[in-house]
Amino acid sequence: MPQFPPHLTFALVPPRNFSSISRDLVAIGRRFYARGWVQGTSGNFSVVMSRKPLRLAITASSVHKGQMRAENILQIDDSAAPVGSRRAVPSAEARLHLEIVRRRGAGAVLHTHSIWGTILSASAPQRDGLKIDGFEMLKGLAGVRTHEHSEHIPIVDNDQDMVRLAGVVGETLDRNPDAHAFLLRRHGLYTWGDTLADAERHVEILEFLFETIGRSATFRPAGGEGGVHHGSIENF
Amino acid sequence: MPQFPPHLTFALVPPRNFSSISRDLVAIGRRFYARGWVQGTSGNFSVVMSRKPLRLAITASSVHKGQMRAENILQIDDSAAPVGSRRAVPSAEARLHLEIVRRRGAGAVLHTHSIWGTILSASAPQRDGLKIDGFEMLKGLAGVRTHEHSEHIPIVDNDQDMVRLAGVVGETLDRNPDAHAFLLRRHGLYTWGDTLADAERHVEILEFLFETIGRSATFRPAGGEGGVHHGSIENF
Amino acid sequence: MPQFPPHLTFALVPPRNFSSISRDLVAIGRRFYARGWVQGTSGNFSVVMSRKPLRLAITASSVHKGQMRAENILQIDDSAAPVGSRRAVPSAEARLHLEIVRRRGAGAVLHTHSIWGTILSASAPQRDGLKIDGFEMLKGLAGVRTHEHSEHIPIVDNDQDMVRLAGVVGETLDRNPDAHAFLLRRHGLYTWGDTLADAERHVEILEFLFETIGRSATFRPAGGEGGVHHGSIENF
Amino acid sequence: MPQFPPHLTFALVPPRNFSSISRDLVAIGRRFYARGWVQGTSGNFSVVMSRKPLRLAITASSVHKGQMRAENILQIDDSAAPVGSRRAVPSAEARLHLEIVRRRGAGAVLHTHSIWGTILSASAPQRDGLKIDGFEMLKGLAGVRTHEHSEHIPIVDNDQDMVRLAGVVGETLDRNPDAHAFLLRRHGLYTWGDTLADAERHVEILEFLFETIGRSATFRPAGGEGGVHHGSIENF
Questions:
Q1: Are D188 and D210 in contact (CB under 8 A)?
Q2: Per-residue b/e over A51-75, b at no fewer than 16 CB within 10 Å?
Q3: Cut 0.95: pTM above it
Q4: What ipTM did this prediction achieve?
Q5: pLDDT (tens digit per residue) in C111-131
Q6: Which of A101, B27, B236, C70 sits most deeply, having the most CB atoms within 10 A of its CB?
Q7: How many other CB atoms are found less than 10 A from the CB of residue C212?
Q8: Radius of gyration over alpha carbons of chain B, in Å?
Q9: B-chain residues within 8 Å CB-CB of C2?
């Protein structure tokens, strides 16, 4: 695995135009749809267009991610209100994207609904997080330089009140400054990165780890001593 | 997840022509084939062309859904008899499509045969339904506005007598007015929507939930208290 | 599910030319490769070109099925010797194809190596077959008209001596006149049909059923009474 | 399954040009990405360009394998230093590729990160290898002529010190002269071949076997005596 630098400041993110970003989000939609991570119009994606004033390119609500077109991407301001000429309803979870961008300085935010993310987040209602350690794949997370890393992924209870949920997400991010992602319980994954490519890499790595841990949970090989114990659901 | 409106009346469905609908059904066939939901020529799809008189565009019998062409779509009347110039045998299950269209005012009906739908429908021969609750993904079902929703999916015993089975399906739909779908035991899923896009979204959501519940059934994570308990097979 | 006619006599198979058949086999190779059924150059496919004299179009040995080209298909005679202008080594298992064509009057034979077929064939070394009953998907097998069908799939011990193995396969086919397929233990599936499309449909149906039964083997749903009991490994 | 010759000497590998090799590596990246074996920019691939002096074409560090282009392949010398006009950082694991090329005379080396390889390598921390026997698919490994073959796949502890790890890999290769591959613990698979096609075939075969053994670990069929016992984690 390659090593990736720790969180860069947003000053390093080169300016890009809206149509180029829209095309990239459409391509990500196709790739994630092919993997089964955005079924049933679920999932939403955003990229920071500018910081001052804050502007995000974000997927419109209710769009099939496998058939999305550039016209399904719109721009919002720092209150999640649409700006610009494309008239569409932004994703209901736009406030969560804004919260992540503000607290982490992220350049891109991706939200997916995967089978294994859902199973792991649902499997222990009393616990507030997932710990994953010892896997080489962890080195694909920004700033991680060794497989001897322990990643804590907070699990936040799902909520339909987006203002309240954004507040809980903000506090969770502050309490877990090293986390590269969080899970909404029985809902899905949020992760981010300095660039859209970084955020996509984080999705791929975390989904790989979720599936590895999920499939390992009942695994007892012939001739082996037991299961795989490098993922756990716990409080922290 | 976006929120979708409750069942619209059919007056809102815009008129569309047969060749456009045929192309859309061919595209759905390719997508479902890629996911493994219509193996071995299984599955059948329909769209309402007109209400008075009732006309459905429906897939012909015995067609490979991954290689289907527009010529494999035909039109039937309210007795499941072919009408129009394309001469082909309609799906043997056309009567079930008609029953759903009449009882629910659906604009499109999709039937799939998935691994997980088959496993769940087969897993408890004495039970008459599947209950799924607490998942964000449920919000993709028309009219559902919160993850705190409990979806009851009736399981109907399979039957080769299509007239008799259509009768049982009709009664089941009437007894479960809020159901968005039903399963035929050891056979597959029927779901529907105001539009073909709505019906496809329902297939994707229900298959996601079937797989999540199916994979969770033996899941016991290290460090967690137990499995996932947001799906069950029960009588209702 | 549609109903398919029982085994037709070969007189009904229309004559087709070699380049058309080669193209069809190449397309099947791509589809099966995408599903993971012919990894590592495994699997081989054949179509009857003529009966008198017996000529088969068959995949060459050691070809990657996802990257196969028409030039990788050759013709063999009734002793598995290559005939015609394309010079290549036929599949080592050509004798098994010939045995099936002779005993069943098949027009096409397909051999795949799937994960679930391998697991099921390996799971009970003392047993000589797999029984599958009660699934609608069974109706896709030629001549089966109801889900209340019990399909017996013989499991034959693997053997590197192709003359000896062809003899055992021949006896097995004679002892199981209703079987639509057999498994070679820890090796893979053989199935066939009057046409190549019939044989492909049989592969898709049997792989669906293998995966359904395989995944069901440890399945115990919350709220249900127990696992799925419509597949078993037994002697017959 | 076809039979493949034992390790050829490198004299038999025909000379090929860099742009042709780069295109082949790009195509392998797409195929492996589609299978989920190189998520999150993981994995790296190399091909021997010349022996004297030793030159490898190898994937650059941190490249998304599904979107890789020919420009992402560079050349390195026998100390893993880049040579030639393309300026990029070679994969951090280039030294492992060189070690394999030297000890085995391999013409191509492929490294993948799969779910099942990770699970198997993680499942028994005290054991130093995986034994697989009795599967027809083993015949796809170079030089193996019967399914009655027992393949020992060493498991090497992961290490971020590439010089030290290369030393351990070299010793492991010498101690296991018949091994076609090794696993890095909680990291991934290394395999190789005389040609790139041979190495890709080895990846496909080993991933098939890992998944078969992994899925078999909890498999207890109805009517069968027990699980599949043709894979084990053990010391050797």
A1: no
A2: eeeebbbbbbbbbbbbbbeeebbbb
A3: no
A4: 0.89
A5: 999 999 999 998 877 788 999
A6: A101
A7: 25
A8: 17
A9: 41, 61-62, 91-92
